[in-house]
Amino acid sequence: MNAITNISPDLSRRHFLGVSGVLVLGTCLPTRKAAALDVAADTFEPNLFLALDSDGTVRITTHRSEMGQGIRTALAQVVADELDADWSRITVVQAEGDAKYGDQNTDGSKSILLNYDRLRAAGASARLMLRQAAAKRWSVAVDTVTAVNHEVVHEGSGRRLGYGDLAGDAAALPVPGDAPLKKEAEHRFIGKGVTHVDAADIARGKGTFGADFRLPNMATAVVVRCPWLGGGVKNVGNKPTDEPGLVGIEILDPAPSAGPVFAPLGGVAVVAEDTWTAVRIAGQLDIEWTASPNQDFDSDVLRQSLRDALKAPGALVPNSAKGDVDAAFATGGTELEAVYETPFLSHAPMEPPVAVADVSEGRCTVNAPLQDPQSARGLVAQYLRVAPEKVSVTPTLLGGAFGRKSKPDFALEAVELSKRLNRPVRVQWLREDDIRHDYFHAASAQYHRAVIDEDGRPKAWLQRTAFPSITSVFAAQARDPAAWELDMGFSNLPYSVDNQRMEFAGIRPGIRVGWLRSVCNIFHAFSANVFADEMAAAVGRDPIEHRLSMFPASGKLKPPGQQPLPGHELDFGRLRHVVERVRELSAWNKPRPEGVGLGFAVHQSFNSYVATVLEASVAGGQPRVSNAYVVLDCGTYVNPDTCRAQMEGAVVFGLSLALYGDIGMKNGAVVQSNFHDYPMLRIAQAPATTVELVAPQGRLPAGVGEPGVPPVAPALSNALFAATGTRHRTLPIRT
Hints:
5-stranded mixed β-sheet, 735 residues
């Protein structure tokens, strides 16, 4: 197999755009020149995202991947609103991976943040051109013509034309560069609940997910991979000699054991005419693997190394030190210290990785549940050593992803096998493959030490974090956490402390690590929120009142590390508001029955503010969460129903991690294999969840998919302390 090389080790999800990616910010609007278009003369296609046919059908192209978060609907809502279209006449088209669209990485909760202005401009420009076309036909001033609900109307005479009637005329006009946008009060779809465009097909079993995609003459492959990272195939025993339906058995070269990037892991591929034959034969093979430096990797040893790293001073977060922490500790007072730990985690989406590739006649097509088809396209082109124009990558629907499917290693497996066999090949991962060979969320350990005053506020606060960095996947020499990883809830904590020091340490992992929904915010929010709760408990103070006393009433945070995008600075007033709202929403001061406790946590991530209260108890030795209350401030939002659903999903996702998430490794191999030993929260365990959205008030849009997760685990730990008096500092929570 070919190697994937020359990938920068310093890649945050904000900046990771792959080989062919382009970041497009602001209101830059890609347009198409009429002379270059191969479209019907009566089709109006003013830009990449919008096309109007003469029958009035509006085709909106969405360049992000749909994984249940409703992004195809939200992006279409933005364009349709500014176009002032009839929603029933909208058709959504999935874009292929192509640099012309700008950033296509559906990751980092940034789809609306990066595209809101440019998609509004796309719709507004088309609306203005339709008005101009009607005004020209009627020989009237354009300012006497309005466009409303798929029609253009002349105010003086009442004459009207449908959008489709004007498609050909509008197509002949130049695209304006500064079409006026609607005011917030004029929005018909933005900020309104709209049923997801894919919902009906998905509910009826008609949606096309990765495993649903078929090509003529397609074979199916199941790959048996080495249990440890970097191992290759030494010998394959028990091969079938004459098996109906068997196409062949192929040996795939191993990925590099250090800095594997997104290269396929290698192994033994069983290719058959049907999935079951491939699965059955793969299970019969007797494979001897070669050694690798990761063969002895043990997660317990790594976690002990993380704990040991916290015992000594670490590297200082640049510009983070304030005052003199050591001197403040020397003065004495009420002192607290604690270590918090989180394990390796798997994404475990309901749909395991799968990809269909067809390499033939110097070209390659890939159809797969990919979060970033554009970077996948570039990597496939690099892998095959062809120009990107020879590669087409189209995302199917994604049955969950959480960051896993932004890595196209499984698509490259299909590409390699299709190239060898000269026919379309579908590579199907099994659930066991997914859990054992993931890009795992990093294990971590945090140390907090503080001396507090009589109100529980810290006079001095020492913070240390240790975890293997995601950059270790991109470079063999990478070790320490990157600045953008520290900016996820560690270096940008909002608490005001006169004497403060933030230190960090890294460690080389023996597995692939990667970003998982909310990334480092998971463990940083856990430790900071539980430690703040411990401060309040030490002086007998209400946790919410204590938290409000720890940051200013107003103003903006200037963190020591990477600065936020303009307009997205942490606003203390907004942070306080979600805290105060969740206190009211949860009836925080209302007495609960004995044995029932309330836990609170708040966190800002992906430019959004989320405050969460959980109501929990212990029954039969197991934690039980009966109610969850969430307040979200994400600035301007497109679909409030989606926002609420994302918070509800975040509660389920966060509780699954807090109660069950634990990936262990022995002798380089993952111990867990399926949902029986890596369980998810079941429907009967899910709490009743109440979500409140803060009104946009003209603020910039921010993230929604990820920021609901970080407060869940600490809120649960704090609730169980309130219910039982037992403090949980290690995840998953064991009672």
